[in-house]
Structures are given as structure tokens and as C-alpha cells.
Amino acid sequence: MAAPCFAKTDWAVILGGSSGFGLATARELAARGMSLCLAHRDRRGAMERIEPEFERIRGLGGALLTFNADALDRTVRGRVLGDLAEAMGAEGRVRVLLHSIAYGNLKLIAPEAPARSAAIAQLATDLAVDEAELAARVDRLFGEGHDGLHALASPPAYPASSFIDEDDLSLTIHSMGTSLLGWTQEILRRRLFAADARVFGLTSEGNALAWKGYAAVAAAKVALESVARSIAVEMAPYGIRCNVIQAGVTDTPALRLIPGAEHLKAQARLRNPFGRLTTPQDVARVIALLSMDEAAWINGDVIRVDGGEHVSGLTR
Questions:
Q1: Concatenated DSSP letters of the chain
Q2: Whole-model pTM?
Q3: For the segment 33-65, what is each residue's pLDDT rounded down to a tens digit?
Q4: I need a labelling partner for 24 at 20 to 30 A (CA). Which of 203, 208, 254, 287 fits?
Q5: Are 216 and 136 in contact (CB under 8 A)?
Q6: What tens digit of pLDDT does each residue of 134-178 get?
């Protein structure tokens, strides 16, 4: 466990704090002595998994406030920050704000054209085996973790009758992108930030690459990066540093919702110099490092946390 390096009067506000990057960061910062305010939105059934996680965080000694409510609702935001201000008292201040909301649309922008794997067909002919049986065996082996078969495995299935529209784009861009600004502005307006505060957003390689079904989320990530740069410049006089973390492909609940997630994970493992996926803990540790006094001169950056995945041309 990491040694404490923050005071209990240092608080982290984490939006999306019940799973994935948000929960991992909550654990890491709590282990380092920070108090936490977590906003999340989960159904009652999911709380059976989440409450034990919160209890473990409480066991680390810092204060923990949790709100199972819609962080995109302005009324909820006001209530959360009002309760936080009361809990922090005169001495407490928000050292960290992490935006880890994963709520968006994963539709295609147009119908897929019909496609058949020419490679499977040719391989079946050369081996004198049934094409359907060969395809089934490839899919089975790919599902068992043989990543090198990703190009031969059956492609992901996407909805064929519903596609992104302007409302989908607007909702996703706000929830996963520009909502960072509203929270940052409101914490600043209420004078809850520490004199040396850190604001973090999360992005992905989809900010520059086109993944099928990811258009709305990609637009949100690009918007978030733009907003983060403006926060870094315009709020610097208030002691606020703002950076965006670009994680490598990470097996989170949000990733599993993306059609083709297994293909993305296979490609990432083949490409990554360390031959594995990024983990939420990898990202949480970097956020903790960037929250320390020594990282105060890092501001306005997109910081890649992927073990070198983004520079690798490996295919193994």
C-alpha cells in the first residue's frame, strides 16, 4: 500500500467513482491519505458490488462522502457541493477533481456494408475443410485468448437499424466531455478549491483514431481535451492545474460496452511493448503522482499512460 502523502483535509471529488478509473483512483488517493467525495449513478442491484468497495475505502481512515445521483444534473451538483462544503469545514479544500463519467452513445453513423472474410474462405479451401466449421473454430480459439486470430475472427455485430443523430452527439459530448467545465466552474465559484488544485479528464486513442461505433465518444473526448486546455490557461491564476490522461486500452465496464471490445483488447495486447492491457490501477497511480506538490508545473497536457502502446508498431 502506498504511504500517505496527503492530509485528510485534502479532498478529491470523483465523478464516476464506483467503477473503472474512478474507483481505482479513489482507492489510490484514499491509501495516500486523501478524503473523498464520490458521485456515481448505479442501480440498486449494482450496489451489492459497490458498497463493499466503499467500506474498504472507509477503512483506510479518510472521510468518504458518496452520492448515487446524476452528476450531470445541475441540482444534484449543487447538492453534492453543498454537502461537501459542510463536511470539509473551514480547513478542507478540494485538491483533486477527476471527471470519469462514462455515459454516451455507441451507435454507428451509417449501416455497415455486407462483408465476408475472404481469408477464412481461402483458408478453408486450401485446407479442404468446411468454411463454417473453420470460422467457428477460429472464433472459439480467439475467445479463449489467442489474440493473433483477431483478424480472422468474426467481426463485431452492430445494431443495423439505429444510428447516431444530433441528439445522441449532444448528449454524449456533454456527459463525457464538456460537463467537466460546469463542475470546475462551480467548485471555483464556491471557493472550495485548494490553493494548489488538480483537475483531470480522461481520454483515449479514439481521440485521433476512428473506431466503429465510437464517433460520439470520440467527439466528446476531443471536446474534453479542448475544455481542459482552456481550464489550464484561464484558471491557472487560481492555482488550478488541468491535465487529461490518455489511458491505453483498459478492460473497464465502459470498454466492454463497445462493440468489438474483444478485438480492441486483442490488438492492444499484440501491440503493447509489455504485452498486456493498461489497468485502472496504472492510471490511478499516475493521477496520484500528478496530484503531488512536485507535479505542480505540469499543466495543460494530454499524458499517455499506456506502457508505450501509442508508439509501438509491434504486431507480434
A1: -PPP-S-TTEEEEEETTTSHHHHHHHHHHHHTT-EEEEEE---GGGHHHHHHHHHHHHTTSS-EEEEES-TTSHHHHHHHHHHHHHHHTTT-EEEEEEE---------SSPPPP---HHHHHHHHHHT--HHHHHHHHHHHHHTT-GGGTTTSPPPP--SS----HHHHHHHHIIIIIHHHHHHHHHHHTT-EEEEEEEEEEE-GGGTS--TT-HHHHHHHHHHHHHHHHHHHHSGGGTEEEEEEEE-SB--HHHHTSTTHHHHHHHHHHHSTTSS-B-HHHHHHHHHHHTSGGGTT--S-EEEESTTGGG-----
A2: 0.94
A3: 999 999 999 999 999 999 999 999 999 999 999
A4: 208
A5: no
A6: 999 999 999 999 999 999 998 888 888 889 999 999 999 999 999
C-beta pairs of 55-60 under 8 Å, 24+ apart in sequence: 56/27, 57/26, 57/27, 57/30, 60/30, 60/31
CA 292 – CA 143 distance, rounded (Å): 41
Partners of 158 in the β-ladder: none
Instruction: Provide the residue type at 74 as one letter.
Output: R
- What is the residue type of 261? A
